[in-house]
Structure formats: structure tokens, C-alpha cells
Design goal:
Elements (H helix, E strand, L loop, with lengths): L6 E4 L30 E6 L3 H10 L7 E7 L3 H11 L3 E3 L2 H6 L5 E4 L6 H10 L3 E5 L6 H14 L3 E4 L6 H11 L6 E9 L6 H4 L7 H16 L7 E8 L5 E10 L3 E8 L8 E5 L3 E4 L8 E4 L2 E4 L18 H12 L10 H18 L9
Length: 372
């Protein structure tokens, strides 16, 4: 009989990730429209939906001298006003154009559903606003390229809100890999599955439904992070689709250089363990649960917890106060005059889109945006 002992300890995670990940520096020169270190970063919230609620709650866990929400916009003024009242936001707009014209906004958080990401991103960036846009960034690679080109043309900061990358647990994963703690990585396995057939935006094609863009992106981004943004040599995808024409369960195998592999499963039909494991020649890193918003790591048998702060209002999604880390990343990048984050760069967003497109192609999932 063999006994396995797991050591546990907890790491305090009130502190945010190192400025811009503390990793590879990008354009260091400051630009005129960036915020100053002695002033709060002023946020505008685009959409008054569930994810915008959680993001705003997450912002309130950060020092008010560093982050302030000064305006919210929704398609209907009454929705914006209700949101503003709930979160004590000074201004409410019944249209995104008004928010784009607000001179007191440093950066806009876009929380609309992804079929509308392209139009809203272009609206705000053409108004010279910095932007943090929810994932997935867009419906396909073509749209992603349009968004990134607009960010460059307008000389503004832009980042896809892949919040997972900024959790302290994710920062620790990158540190461990960089130091060779588990040797050469040979395999990344992950899965994310929750029953979502009752949620219209998850199953209706016109709302951007489909498992790859909604859930699979979390598994994919982990793989891409571990393999440092390398493009896979081959992609094999299979699974099932719904009568609505969107993918329901995806099983994806990725092969990288030097025979390094990754496998992930995503499903909007069934509940999966929702864990992940990174296997190297000298050990393993395991995310035992909630791999998309990790608060626990098990490294070679030693468990460490990275709890997120408690919310001041009820949340719609688990661990959503962890969005504070991506928000602070945005602030630190703005203070340094950067136009993108080294942790979630424009190239990273493009790679995600390219792999997502190929998975959809093999699954036979086609959106109207693909033919435009």
C-alpha cells in the first residue's frame, strides 16, 4: 500500500501580478493619452450585463486611488441607470456612442457578446479610447486582424480580456516553467465543460454560440501560454454539434515542435472535472479545479492556494473578483505608455483566433461573419 502526502499552504493574493507581467518589455515610450501614476485609471463600462457587473465588482476590490468607474453605457438608458445606481457610478449613457465621446475616460471595458466586439472595439478606438475587450476577441481571425489594426492605427492600448493569465496562480505557473521546475514540458491536458444548453448565447449561432469560442478558448489559452505562444504544427479536432449549427463538445489534439503535445476537451453539454495538468520531464503542475479561474496549484505533490478577494455584491460567475488582476495589468501598462501587454499580447490574440478558426473548420461550424 502506498500513501501519498499532499503539502498545503496558502499564498496571500491581495497584491496584483507584477506590472505587465514582469516579463518581456514592450514599447517603453510614454504617449500623451496615458494616465499618470498619481491619478486613478478612469474606467468606462460598455454594457450593463452580467460580466460587466462582475468586472465592476472586481474593480472595487482594488484601491480607489488607482481605479475608478466613472461611466457606464447600455443600449437602453434605464439599464445603464440601474447599473450605475447599483455600483455608484456617476454617469449613465443610453448608447455606446455617448460613452465614446466622454473625455474623462482613460479605458473602456467591453462586455457585450462577441458578435458585437468588432463594431464596439472600432467605435471606441476610433474615438482614441484605450480598450480592454472580453474574450473571445472576435468571431474569426479576419475580425481580430481588423481590431488589432485599428488599435495600431489609433495608437491606443488594446488587450483581449483573457483574465486567467493574470491570476496569481497563472503568474506562478509561468515562473515555474521559466525556472525549469518540471523540466521540459511534454504534455498539456485540460478540460472545461458545463451544461449550458439553457443559455441562449451558448447555443444560438447568431449570438456567437459554440463551445470553442466560449469554453474551449480557456483550454487553448493555457496551452498557448505554456508553449510560449508557439504555433502548433498540427491541429486535429472532432466532436459533436447542435441542430443550431454550433459546436457542443470539442476534443482537440495539438502537436508542437519536438513532439510536444496538448489535448483539451470542452463541452456545453456535460459537467467535466474542469482541471488541467502540465507534464514535464521532471514533474507536473496540476490545476485541480476551475482551470479557467485557478486558485489552487499542486506542484509535484505540494498544494498551494491563491484565494481571490471576497466581493461586495453577489457575483454571477465563480471567482470573478479575479478580474481585478487583468484590470491592474491594464493600469500598469497605461502608466508605462505601452500599447499592449506582454502577458496577453496582440500576437497571442491572433494565435487564439487562428486555432479557433481551424477547430471550427474541422467541426463544420460556420458563422455569418465568416462569409463577410
Amino acid at each position: 500500500m502506498m500513501f501519498v502526502f499532499v503539502l498545503r499552504h496558502t499564498v496571500k493574493t491581495d497584491a496584483v501580478a507584477p506590472p505587465c507581467g514582469g516579463e518581456r518589455p514592450l514599447w517603453p515610450a510614454p504617449t500623451p493619452n496615458q494616465c499618470q501614476s498619481n491619478m486613478a485609471t478612469r474606467w468606462g463600462i460598455c454594457s450593463a450585463g452580467k460580466i460587466s457587473h462582475d468586472f465592476t465588482v472586481a474593480l472595487k476590490t482594488l484601491p480607489p486611488g488607482d481605479h475608478q468607474v466613472v461611466a457606464v453605457a447600455a443600449r437602453k438608458l434605464e439599464n445603464a441607470q440601474e447599473f450605475a445606481k447599483k455600483h455608484s457610478i456617476p454617469r449613465a449613457y443610453g448608447g455606446y456612442e455617448e460613452l465614446a465621446k466622454d473625455p474623462d475616460i482613460d479605458v473602456v471595458y467591453i462586455g457585450v457578446i462577441h458578435p458585437y466586439h468588432l463594431s464596439t472595439c472600432l467605435l471606441f478606438m476610433n474615438a482614441k479610447k484605450n480598450v480592454l475587450c472580453e474574450k473571445p476577441l472576435a468571431m474569426n481571425t479576419k475580425e481580430v486582424k481588423q481590431i488589432l489594426a485599428s488599435a495600431k492605427k489609433n495608437d491606443v492600448f488594446f488587450m483581449e480580456a483573457v483574465w486567467t493569465r493574470f491570476f496569481p496562480a497563472s503568474v506562478e505557473i509561468r515562473r515555474l516553467l521559466a525556472q525549469g521546475e518540471i523540466g521540459e514540458v511534454k504534455m498539456v491536458r485540460s478540460e472545461f465543460g458545463v451544461p449550458l444548453h439553457h443559455v441562449p448565447r451558448a447555443v444560438q449561432k447568431e449570438l456567437g454560440g459554440g463551445t470553442m469560442l466560449d469554453l474551449g478558448i480557456y483550454c487553448l489559452q493555457l496551452t498557448c501560454m505554456v508553449y510560449n505562444g508557439e504555433k502548433p504544427e498540427s491541429i486535429q479536432a472532432t466532436g459533436t454539434c447542435l441542430d443550431t449549427g454550433v459546436d457542443d463538445t470539442d476534443v482537440v489534439t495539438l502537436k508542437f515542435s519536438n513532439n510536444r503535445m496538448a489535448v483539451f476537451i470542452s463541452s456545453s453539454d456535460i459537467e467535466l472535472p474542469n482541471d488541467a495538468v502540465i507534464v514535464g520531464t521532471k514533474g507536473t503542475i496540476r490545476i485541480p479545479e476551475h482551470m479557467w479561474c485557478p486558485t489552487t496549484l499542486v506542484v509535484n505533490g505540494k498544494e498551494t492556494k491563491y484565494p481571490v478577494p471576497e466581493p461586495y455584491l453577489p457575483l454571477n460567475f465563480i471567482n470573478s473578483t479575479g478580474m481585478r488582476y487583468e484590470a491592474e495589468e491594464v493600469r500598469q501598462c497605461l502608466l508605462k505608455g505601452l500599447k499592449e501587454s506582454a502577458v496577453m499580447s496582440h500576437a497571442d490574440s491572433l494565435l487564439l483566433a487562428e486555432v479557433e478558426d481551424e477547430v471550427r473548420r474541422q467541426m463544420g461550424v460556420v458563422y455569418s461573419q465568416d462569409s463577410q
